[in-house]
């Protein structure tokens, strides 16, 4: 029996595995395995509800400004923002590498302008008040937000939103920032508000360049070129001692060739302190000496106010040459009428002549 046990033990010991590898091991590549040339290119599917869930979640994070990753400072005001939003919506941010904060120190960008621009980026239903439109425009322009710029420019062009009075206000707001294209657009929209604008302090405080631009614009609605002339005089007289040197330049925008000779003689005698300036004298004398052909309709946007006589033809019995005192009384009437005054003015059709003036012209001919 013991002999049998010894044989069994001996057999087990003989069968103990040899830990050495009996054949060499090869990698898949060594064995010739290759990926198919076309590979396995399958579209990964996902339930639409899950994708929408992710998008809604991201939208909540952005719109509620959670987990923001950059602080933007504008004139000491701090805004918590997402860098990805700025890089996606603005050309300004695309090629900039920010740390954790950014300071926008440009003089045209205000906290209100930046806040409105960023709210437009992250909200579908952001709103805008009229008084903030220029600040938003300047911020969008500085940060170069093409879609927002297009939208704001469309608002500027919307006549129902920007009437003649608002156009003058926006023109004033643009002046410190020297946006000539926007200024010109707004001046072209002032129209019948022009004389109301002339009554304001803001008009009297305009710089020479801006008042000249305004008076020279063909879309300023007037009953007569004399109103342009006296509007220039009003600006000069507001600070005559400082502004008299500008008289030749501002008088140069008046279309004196649209005035009859009796008016030219009258205004020359009425304001000697102005017309004694040699350059201004030359403007009047040259017109008096020149044989003129009037094409008034193409030079101004003419309007008709039935309450005044100076819009009649100079040959009409109802015509009166407007003087400075009469112009001041007219401005007082405009002020008393209030903001709705401009709506009382009627546009004159090209070539239109009032019946009384037409009869007088026929009699003269």
TrEMBL record:
Matching SUPFAM superfamilies: POZ domain
PANTHER family: AT01380P-RELATED (PTHR22667)
Pfam families xrefs: BACK, BTB, DUF4734
Domain BACK: 165-268
Domain of life, source organism: Eukaryota
Region annotated Disordered, chain positions: 1-27
Protein name as catalogued: Blast:Kelch-like protein 7
